[in-house]
Give the backbone structure.
Amino acid sequence: MDLTLVYRSFVLHVAEQPWVKGLILKRGQRLYRRYVAGETLEEALQAAQALEDQGVHAILDLLGEMVRSEEEARAFQGEILALVQALEQKPWPRYVSLKLTQLGLDLSEGLALELLRGILNEARAQGVFVRIDMEDSPRVEATLRIYEGLRQEGFENLGLVLQSYLYRTEKDLDRLLPYRPNLRLVKGAYREPKEVAFQDKRLIDAEYLHLMKRMLREGLYVAIATHDPRIIGEAKRYTEAMGIPKDRFEFQLLYGVRPLEQRRLAQEGYTVRAYVPYGRFWYPYLSRRIAERPENLLLVMRSLLGG
Ligand code: FDA
């Protein structure tokens, strides 16, 4: 296994320990402020406005996942509906991301489907695009089924995410092609076993490039979601060489990560969106960001040692 992935797997495991969680919730404020727009919708809309002022569009994401009761799932639906309604008053492109476990996927697929359908109806009325984030591998199949079901019902304002670290992804892409899906391609952020996912960063990167080019050649609209300078460079080179116009793809990056690059890409005429997470349940999101980057762990350690 590649060392980067050993580190990631270790951090994701340690982050699940209650005492570590307690420490980070108390002392991870610097990281929290870097990666999360705030706890309220108001703060998220302010962060989105600041991005818009710099030519970068926002993907609003109410943090929350793996809910354990129907009541909690319905409460999240209510908050996402409030977000969709708040976007209606904004002059920007309107775009939200959500997770199906936030809408009760682990309790029942039918519940997640029903709650997402409610959100999509409202989003369609307000001109909002909704993307389903992809979670860990045991949830991929149900996520694809829900996506397919809703596309068959006629919802066009719906997108999905595919992860280049999973062996299954190319087959999933074949399966989705008839829907002409709007896809976000990512490397994948979860701790996955070798039975289902590549464990070597070079293979994950190579697969990313392969899938990205295939999606572009198929004429799909692709959200190239990465901070990797090598992949961003290759995406620019490839689309130019193939004559693929800039309105057939976009770059997506996370709020707080490579902000200068976000602005630079926008200035070069590419569509750029930053994923803006907000809300009270920021811990799992933050632990994935720490797992992606050893420097982030050092930041946490320093703040712990700092008294
Ligand atoms: P990689 O990890 O190789 O990093 C390349 C370079 O980017 C690093 O060398 C560093 O310079 C910089 N970088 C990366 N992460 C950083 C960080 N946290 N802080 C600072 N610098 C960093 N995953 C998933 O499983 N399901 C999903 O739905 C999504 N959705 C999603 C949306 C968007 C808009 C983005 C950008 C990413 C996701 N992801 C995701 C996360 C994704 O799978 C992946 O974990 C991260 O993007 C990190 O991988 P990179 O592609 O950036 O490359």
Q: What stands out?
A: The longest helix spans residues 70-87.
